[in-house]
Write a structure and sequence with these properties.
Helices cover 37% and strands 4% of the residues. It is mainly alpha-helical. Helix 8 runs antiparallel to helix 9. It is found in: Cell outer membrane.
Length: 673
């Protein structure tokens, strides 16, 4: 192994991302036999272990407190970062979206989107590199071999989709790096997509269907959904539509509808009617909503998510089951912060906290917290998500299951339960919360974080196993992909082909299942354009999709096709560097300025009077954290366009697509770099 000389005082995180080793003659010894690759990856079980590590990377993006999925939504038209106790959050992007901002929590997740994704890619590359270490019964035609290889291709493509949508042109390792490397260069994202398409076309032939796999493993239909999105990046819209035809008509998954609800189920609990620790009733309205297809299929009870036909690919996370993930904490992340000691909702006319902040398992304290969950408001919906999409054709649709009473949480569902109000004889004790007092003054300092509604039916789960005093979101199974998205992906593919009747048909299939009042007409689609698809995706998939990435992907398509958007604008690519072009002008930025009023109006925070939401066109892509680049001393690994350090960028490399089915050659070496 080669000895690495580190620059004094500088950590080289790029080595941690891409892998490193060191050699010297006196260190040159054979590894212990049980650690050697030929033994570790000498059979299907060993390769599956590496693959499972990559799967865990996906699950971690979804499950847990304020993870990457939430941040991706917060950089979109759907929601915003609302952790208003952190002034350096990804809010004032002109000031704090920099290569030196090390935030990696509820206030920003760009670091883990970059570094962790490369770590997960390394696990997928391990399977690809070592796929032929085992002696497969049928050689290169072995079913198990090709399923594992196809699954590794799928996961690698899943993470490269994120990297290119989030950072543009990026480093492109296709192998496990076994020697010290300090010469990485960025590749043009177009070549990355071309390779991912070739790989996924192999995967869609060989990955097994859902009926043959354990829940949690990505099946063939998940590959089809991802491949369809890559196809659309390359303007292969008819091919994308055909893939969604296969998913929708294939029988492996289907929309869950009202008639599939068991006959003995009339209600679904979306809040804790009773104290989950004692079983005694909690004050206020019942937490049971009338059963419908939406709240039942999202219900956190038993294994119904993993057994109903809606799901294509899921996170499996049952309580008290060995090997599952930690608690979801989704209520904590997505719900309003009504229980904070300094930023909660006050008793009207005073600045006394109106809700009880005491965490306990007994019946006396924190009753609203137990009932509705200890939410902390790290992501709040935009006005577009909270109001605009439910006002369709001049009607506020509360018939739609996704927005009906109880399925959709409103602040007035909460009661003032601070015991001090009872002690003082306050008339507000156990009365519904109100935003304004009798004089029209706000009853909370921070409405951004503390006062909003949201679709709680998809985030609610009971804390049974750990922290039952908090009730901020227990372990729960979660959909990563489900059949409803396949209809909306097909609707998009049809839109790009000007099949407006087909778009309306697919969107209305989703709306009919949700019992919406009005359906889309062909004229509506012609007027709203891709906005009709985006609106329905938001109604159906809020908190379930990588919303930023979807907007960026569509921005690429608008720029490649030159198709006029519903806003009357057209977009283009100058030369072949998509990143540079979209960093100047994009559908993403214009959509954000249209729908995300926080960024458009540069809304200030009440908690820090110098912090406000700001955004410029370059923020379509995010900066790479500077320490991830500084160790690449033998070449320039590009910083994202527009950020400090990008002035030193070099021309991204052009990838030559490699034939799938066998281990890859290093992309840089393949083109003579």
């Amino acid at each position: 192994m080669k000895k690495i000389k580190l620059l004094k005082g500088i950590i080289l995180p790029v080595f941690l991302i891409f892998g490193f080793s060191c050699t010297e003659e006196f260190l040159d010894e054979k590894p212990l036999s049980f650690l050697s690759p030929i033994n570790t990856f000498g059979d299907a079980a060993g390769l599956q272990t590496a693959l499972d590590g990559a799967y865990k990377g996906v699950f971690d993006q979804w499950n847990g407190d304020t993870r990457e999925l939430m941040f991706n939504s917060n950089m979109s038209d759907a929601s915003v970062v609302s952790a208003t106790d952190k002034p350096d959050a990804w809010v004032d992007l002109r000031v704090y979206a920099t290569p030196t901002n090390s935030r990696n929590n509820d206030a920003g997740r760009t670091l883990s989107f970059y570094a962790d994704n490369y770590a997960h890619i390394k696990k997928a590359n391990t399977v690809i590199d070592y796929i032929d270490f085992p002696e497969w019964a049928d050689g290169a035609n072995d079913v198990e071999r090709n399923h594992l290889l196809g699954s590794a291709y799928f996961l690698r493509a899943f993470f490269y989709m994120q990297l290119t949508m989030d950072f543009g042109n990026v480093g492109f390792p296709l192998n496990v790096v076994t020697d010290a490397r300090r010469d990485f260069k960025a590749f043009n994202m177009q070549g990355i997509w071309d390779q991912m398409i070739a790989d996924l076309e192999y995967a869609v032939q060989h990955v097994k269907p859902k009926s043959q796999l354990a829940v949690g493993q990505a099946p063939k239909d998940a590959v089809r959904v991802l491949l369809a999105k890559f196809y659309m990046l390359n303007l292969r819209f008819a091919d994308a539509e055909k893939l969604m035809d296969d998913v929708i008509n294939g029988g492996e998954s289907q929309l869950f509808t009202d008639d599939m609800i068991p006959s003995d189920v009339s209600e679904v609990e979306v809040a804790n009617t009773n104290n989950p620790n004692t079983g005694n009733p909690l004050p206020g309205r019942s937490g049971y909503a009338s059963a419908d297809a939406i709240n039942y299929m999202h219900m956190d009870k038993g294994n119904q998510k993993t057994s109903n036909p809606e799901g294509i690919w899921l996170v499996v996370n049952e309580p008290f089951v060995l090997g599952t993930q930690g608690r979801s904490a989704r209520i904590r992340a997505w719900g309003p912060n009504f229980v904070s000691t300094n930023l909660g909702v006050w008793e009207p006319g005073t600045n006394r906290t109106g809700t009880d902040t005491q965490q306990a398992t007994n019946d006396d304290r924190g009753r609203m917290m137990k009932k509705w969950g200890r939410s902390q408001g790290f992501a709040r919906p935009t006005n577009y998500s909270q109001y605009d999409i439910w006002n369709f054709k001049g009607k506020i649709d509360e018939q739609d299951y996704r927005h009906k009473d109880l399925n959709w949480f409103e602040m007035e569902d909460l009661l003032y339960d601070n015991p001090s109000l009872l002690d003082d004889g306050s008339k507000y004790y156990l009365k519904p919360l109100q935003l304004l007092d009798d004089n029209g003054n706000l009853t909370c300092e921070d409405t951004i974080r503390c006062w909003f509604g949201y679709p709680r039916y998809k985030f609610y789960s009971v804390n049974q196993q750990d922290r039952p005093d908090r009730q901020d979101g227990g372990k729960m199974d979660m959909y990563i992909m489900r059949i409803a998205e396949a209809y909306l992906v097909r609707a998009e593919a049809r839109f790009w082909q000007d099949n407006f009747a087909g778009v309306a048909e697919d969107i209305n299939t989703i709306r009919q299942r949700a019992n919406a009042i009005d359906m889309y007409t062909i004229a509506d689609i012609q007027t709203d354009g891709i906005g009709a698809v985006l609106d329905e995706r938001n109604r159906e998939l809020f908190g379930e999709e990588y919303r930023h990435d979807e907007l960026v992907r569509m921005s690429v398509i608008f720029a490649k096709t030159g198709k006029m958007a519903y806003n009357g604008k057209t977009y283009s690519i100058s030369g072949d560097d998509i990143e540079k072009s979209l960093s100047v002008s994009s559908f993403y930025y214009d959509r954000m300025m249209e729908k995300n009023t926080f960024f458009r109006d540069e809304v200030p925070w009440a908690t820090y009077n110098t912090t406000k939401y700001t955004m410029d066109p370059k923020h379509i892509y995010w900066p790479v954290y500077q320490p991830y680049l500084v160790g690449n001393v033998e070449a320039i690994l590009n910083q994202t366009t527009g950020y400090n350090g990008a002035e030193e960028n070099i021309e991204p490399l052009k990838h030559v697509v490699q034939t799938p089915g066998v281990p890859n050659e290093d992309p840089m070496r393949a083109i003579g770099e």
